[in-house]
């Protein structure tokens, strides 16, 4: 395991290069629960740039300043008004920028271990900082760490201000500006006139909320890579029950198609067949749901839970497209809700993959406009922080998304070698999904588990048959 001793060389505050025209942005019912969560910590490992590290630092500072002008909320601070509502004060107070060195480490040394080495935790600042601290601390910190043959750019952002969609929008814009873009591709939308805007007040004790998980338990962290081929195999397995059902119906139609089409023998799609095909399009279990179901089964088996124990698979979903009318795809802030799917350990493991995958799929599909609005109303009746953690030892929490454009950020000398995260918001059962570097539907799962559970997962043939080496 690579030894960790990253040295911070300098620290400064970066301000937007233009003054903000925004005044305040009120936190929504999707933002407020995140005040008890730690700042998001995500970053990219890059090859060494084709110029000096000193020049890189200069370029990054200038680009960060320009990028903040497009995202003025990130250069502000949190304030709480006399009525208890929390806002982002867009006052151009600036973000923290750190230059660090770990030249004893090289890219191969930190990417080759089976388990993610602790050195990555030192590539971020604001460690274990709760988002409520944005009342006094910057909402963003960027740390640039020089390695022997590469650079790690780590970005730490207040989770009450951004979700994953907004985080990667900002990060990719930062890269785009650094590469030399005069105009950014996608402008954030800071509207607060949405269903998430609410008069509800979330009350906090003096000094703010506490983290909802200990963060002290021993953990193992590993990146599992799934190629496009492996994902398609899982999807086929998960959908096999549905496909067989369709085949039976189609078989009946082929044998009796003259009656179905009222005498039309020209092989046209019949009304019944059209219905079957339409239903199959809407009921197909997705690749990601199939992979999630396999993980749910295998982690549950590795935990050796009693058959009667209820297990929970919690999945964060982006609500921007689930609402009617839809939110703008670049709505800035949190627009997420958590979908819990429950099953007894015994039933989950006694059934085939299709059973668990279908449970996940039905919950995700059902989470439309009405469900999103119902979740908002439920929260308004009982405002509360997001309960991050694994309280019963039988839960899995899936965050991030393989749809996020994590490898689309080119700072000027090529795509990232890898995406990694810091210590933030990690506990037994916390999973983060990343796209595979090769794209084309490949997925990486960052899996955080108790050591004994990780060992059980690694010896689970049903799970490991789909895992391949990271390219």
From TrEMBL:
GO molecular function: acyltransferase activity
Listed InterPro entries: CAT-like_dom_sf, Sec_Metabolite_Acyltrans
Cited Pfam families: Transferase (PF02458)
SUPFAM superfamilies: CoA-dependent acyltransferases (SSF52777)
Claim: Acyltransferase is one of the keywords in the record: yes
Keyword annotations from UniProtKB, A to Z: Acyltransferase, Transferase
Range of residues in the leader sequence: none
PANTHER family attached to this UniProt entry: BAHD ACYLTRANSFERASE DCR, FAMILY REGULATORY PROTEIN, PUTATIVE (AFU_ORTHOLOGUE AFUA_3G14730)-RELATED
Name of the protein this chain belongs to: BAHD acyltransferase DCR
């Amino acid at each position: 395991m690579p030894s960790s001793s990253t040295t911070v060389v300098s620290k400064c505050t970066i301000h937007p290069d233009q003054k903000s025209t925004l005044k305040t942005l009120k936190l929504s019912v999707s933002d407020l629960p995140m005040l008890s969560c730690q700042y998001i910590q995500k970053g990219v490992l890059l090859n060494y740039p084709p110029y000096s590290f000193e020049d890189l630092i200069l370029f990054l500072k200038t680009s960060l300043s320009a990028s903040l002008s497009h995202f003025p909320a990130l250069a502000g601070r949190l304030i709480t008004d006399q009525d208890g509502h929390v806002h982002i004060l867009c006052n151009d107070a600036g973000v923290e920028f750190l230059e660090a060195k770990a030249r004893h480490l090289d890219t191969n040394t930190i990417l080759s271990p089976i388990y993610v080495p602790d050195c990555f935790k030192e590539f971020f600042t604001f460690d274990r900082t709760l988002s409520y601290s944005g009342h006094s601390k910057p909402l963003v910190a960027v740390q640039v760490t020089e390695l022997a043959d590469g650079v790690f750019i780590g970005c730490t952002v207040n989770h009450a201000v951004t979700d994953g969609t907004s985080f990667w929008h900002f990060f990719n814009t930062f890269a785009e500006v650094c590469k030399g873009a005069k105009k950014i591709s996608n402008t954030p939308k800071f509207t607060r006139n949405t269903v998430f805007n609410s008069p509800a007040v979330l009350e906090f004790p003096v000094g703010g909320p506490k983290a909802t998980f200990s963060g002290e338990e021993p953990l193992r962290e590993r990146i599992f890579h799934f190629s496009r081929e492996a994902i398609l195999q899982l999807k086929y397995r998960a959908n096999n029950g549905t496909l067989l059902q369709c085949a039976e119906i189609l078989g009946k139609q082929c044998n009796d198609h003259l009656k179905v089409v009222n005498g039309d023998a020209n092989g046209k799609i019949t009304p019944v067949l059209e219905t079957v095909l339409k239903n199959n399009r809407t009921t197909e279990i997705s690749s990601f749901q199939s992979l999630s179901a396999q993980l749910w089964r295998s982690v549950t088996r590795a935990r050796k839970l009693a058959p009667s124990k209820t297990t929970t698979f919690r999945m964060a979903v982006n609500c921007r497209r689930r609402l009617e009318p839809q939110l703008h795809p670049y709505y800035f802030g949190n627009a997420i809700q958590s979908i819990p799917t429950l099953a007894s350990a015994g039933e989950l493991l006694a059934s085939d993959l299709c059973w668990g995958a279908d449970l996940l799929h039905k919950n995700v599909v059902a989470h439309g406009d009405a469900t999103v609005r119902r979740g908002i109303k439920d929260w308004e009746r009982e405002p509360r922080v997001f309960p991050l953690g694994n309280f019963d030892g039988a839960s899995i929490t899936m965050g991030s998304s393989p749809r996020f454009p994590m490898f689309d950020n080119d700072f000027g000398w090529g795509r990232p070698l890898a995406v990694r995260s810091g210590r933030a918001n990690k506990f037994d059962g916390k999973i983060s999904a990343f796209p595979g570097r090769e794209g084309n539907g490949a997925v990486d799962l960052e899996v955080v588990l108790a050591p004994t559970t990780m060992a059980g997962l690694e010896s689970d043939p049903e799970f490991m048959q789909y895992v391949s080496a990271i390219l």
